[in-house]
Amino acid sequence: MHRLPNIFAAMLMAFALSACAAQPAQQQAAIIPPAADALAALEGILAAYAEGQTLHVETKVEPAMIGYQQWIDAMRLSHAQQKQIRIALHDTQVVNGSDTVTIRSAWDKRYLSLPELSPVLRKGQSVFLMQLTQDGWKLAAQSGDNLFAP
Amino acid sequence: MLTLFRRKPFYPLAFLVGSSLATAEQLEAVTNDQAAQAWQQNNLGGQTPQLVQQEDGGTRIEWKGGVTADVYTNNVTTANGSINTPFRSGTFYKGMVQSDLRGINAQAGTVNYFQFGATHTNDRAVLSLYPRQINNIQFGRSGTGYLVAAGDIAPNFSSLSSALGARGAIGQKQIGDNTVYAYGGVVAESWEALENTVTRNQFLRDVVGVKLENAYSQNLKLYATGQAGADRAGSITNPLLPPSILTAKLRAYSTGFQYAQGAYQLAGETAASGYQQNTQAGRNGRAHILDGGWRGEALALRAGYHAIDPEFASLSTMVSAGIKEAYVSGDWTAASWLTLGADLRNSKNTTLAVIGFPSQTTDTDSAAARANINFGPDLPGWGLSLNQNASESRDALANTSRNGQRAAMLNYASPNWTAGLGYGFGETRNSASPTMDSDTTSWQLTLGRSLSDADNTLPSSWSLNINFNAALQDQQLLSGISTRNLNYSLTFTGQRAGWGNLNLLLSSGLVTRPFGQADLKLRSAQLEAVHPFSPMSGIKLYLRDTRSNIGDPLLGYDESVAGVQYTHNF
User: Which of B88, B113, B503, B565 could be a cystine partner for B70, CB 3.0 to 4.6 Å?
Assistant: First the structure.
């Protein structure tokens, strides 16, 4: 198990070398994998939340999500109590599923807490389940630490 | 996209051997559409590969990918260390690679694939634990009626059973009207945590699951699932975490249906689970969900009911234990110029009873209404959106909390101009903590101008967009104090064919403080220049300078970044 990722990397490199020798590259449109779209949608939700666009965030959450109202209320309440919200994702991993994309990420959330506007740094890990719907990518579920909590 | 072979090749990778072995004699011949449909069913949201019949019927290899190399220098000063900023001073690099390799046999209707992504950096703000991370590894084979895959897997059986990310293997096989799905693997924080390169903060959890699905009719599917998980004792390696954290094991079973006919959709599931932490008494829970919808030409309705015991546990990230909720919502295109929407909900959240803390229930009623008005030919380009929502909760101690918002946004859009003016009012009340009760008024103004040399016959060779945005938020706490946010920004975006893009963002703002201290002022400037070398590669130069909470001895921080990024896709 310890060497598994290195083996995959070596396989990929071997194929890359042989492939490049076989054919010249053709110019095509840049690749836009669905995982990148789902991650961009999640980052859009986080940016809108940090900017206070809570109504926009609500349109990006699947209404049939279990615990929808609890999630929405926590999000609204947190925004009434926190200023200068700043969220940074790191150690992010994205996995394509059959009709969903699973995003696991650690995060830092920095904000000034009312009423004193005292600085707060919260850290956590979350798993976000993004689902492709007729209206684009939406947040279908979230588990782990809730960065939207007050 | 790189098409590597036009004839039957010698494959250097073992996983592609299946493509060459899967000949028309061995597999039932299918059409390209069927094969593409099978891929799409198994990889919804993914790009469906083009199945092009080669002259000799062989396998076509597609390889897409990209490499990004980034070098940047941060200059960070902060009055309060990492509490204020995630960035550190220094020169950093970041390299990312992603690859999507597919072997496509149109005649056999199979797609073999190998997807890989990795990041390497010395910036701990990007990867906090280790210089490299495998973002994803997925390889497998998809054909008509079957799928096998390994690496990163994301089984999504149903809402109450299995919906998770894991490292392992997954497969599905269709036999007549029945389909069997199965997976097995390990839930870990990352590949690096799995191989013990970085410390683990969570237990490794072994998971297995199976789903049997029957297509009872063209419109109705029935299914049953079973899954189990067990934490590996001693697999947490972070010495800072207490050794008293208990391992757990769980099992869950569910049965459900999916019905879809024309405009109608209905899905239901019922589940039972058992959960036990080491040395603790086990607990059993039940869960039931039912969601339905109807979509007509001008009207769409949705309704649902979810009841999840606080004791319920499963391998689905969609499960939120202790929720009992019902909702009904609808959207109605009342006229060509008017769209209306509404949402009504009741939600009860019950906590799990533990020793010394009995179970408690919070009951919430909520409503939301929205309207979008298009003024049509009388006022071309003008629109108005209205929103109102309210939520009221009562807890077991008879405390009530209430929040609500009203918002209106007037918009104008034409080929050369955009404008918007928004107003919002929000209130929060909580009888358990009245000092934080507040009313918030907000205003937003946007103005945009677009210039280019485009005409009706030729696309533009250059374009320039200028956008101005201003936002004001005034929050009055009922305890008598108040705070105000004011932000404004000016954005220039220029583009010239062959040269690339130039983006300049200037922003400024302030936050007033409730107890008479000096305002917290912010200034930011960002410049990006992007130049394409080819349709597949380009370089970006960027400069960012941010000064936040200027002069404050505790909250102040400055961040300056200068970097260059090279991207190449193939």
Answer: B565
Q: Is residue A45 part of a domain?
A: yes
Q: Domain range for residue A16?
A: 1-30
Comparing CA positions, the residue from B299, B315, B204, B214 lying closest to residue B255 is B214
User: A43 and A58: one domain?
Assistant: yes
A37 and A9 belong to one structural domain: no
Do A84 and A116 reside in the same domain of the chain?
A: yes
| pLDDT classification of A8: cutoffs 50, 70, 90 | very low
Q: What is the pTM of this model?
A: 0.84
pLDDT digits (tens, 9 = 90+) for B224-251: 999 999 999 999 999 999 888 999 999 9
* Count of domains observed in chain A: 2
Segment B419-473, tens digit of pLDDT? 999 999 999 999 998 989 999 999 999 999 999 988 878 888 999 999 999 999 9
Are the beta carbons of B485 and A22 separated by less than 8 Å? no
The answer to the question of residue A150 being in a domain is no
Q: Both A65 and A7 in a single domain?
A: no
Radius of gyration of chain A (CA): 19
DSSP calls for B291-315: EEEEE-SSEEEEEEEEEE-TT---E
Give the chain A residue whose CA is nearest to the CA of B315: A143
Please report, to the nearest 10 degrees, the dihedral formed by the alpha carbons of residues A62, A64, A70, A75 taken in order: 10
Asked if the Cβ–Cβ distance from B3 to A117 is below 8 Å, we say no
Phi, psi of B41 (to 5 degrees): -60, -40
At which residue do the structure tokens 């109608």 appear? B264
Cβ atoms A127, A51 nearer than 8 A: no
**How long, in residues, is chain A?**
150
Render pLDDT for B188-207 as a digit per residue (tens, 0 to 9): 999 999 999 999 999 999 99
B428/A15 CB distance under 8 A: no
Q: Do residues A4 and A41 both lie within one domain?
A: no
B435 close contact with A: CB closer than 8 A: yes
Q: Which of B:220-249 have CB within 8 Å of A? A: none
* Residue in the block written with tokens 């391992």: B247
Paired tokens of B86: 């995630």
* Together in a domain, A5 and A36: no
Q: Do the Cβ atoms of A68 and B327 come within 8 Å?
A: yes
Tell whether A45 and A13 lie within a shared domain: no
Q: Is the same domain home to A126 and A83?
A: yes
Distance between start and end Cα atoms, chain A: 40
Is pLDDT of B323 > 90?
yes
Q: State the complex-level ipTM.
A: 0.85
Q: Which of residues 457-496 of B touch A (CB under 8 A)?
A: 471, 473, 475, 477, 479, 481, 483, 485
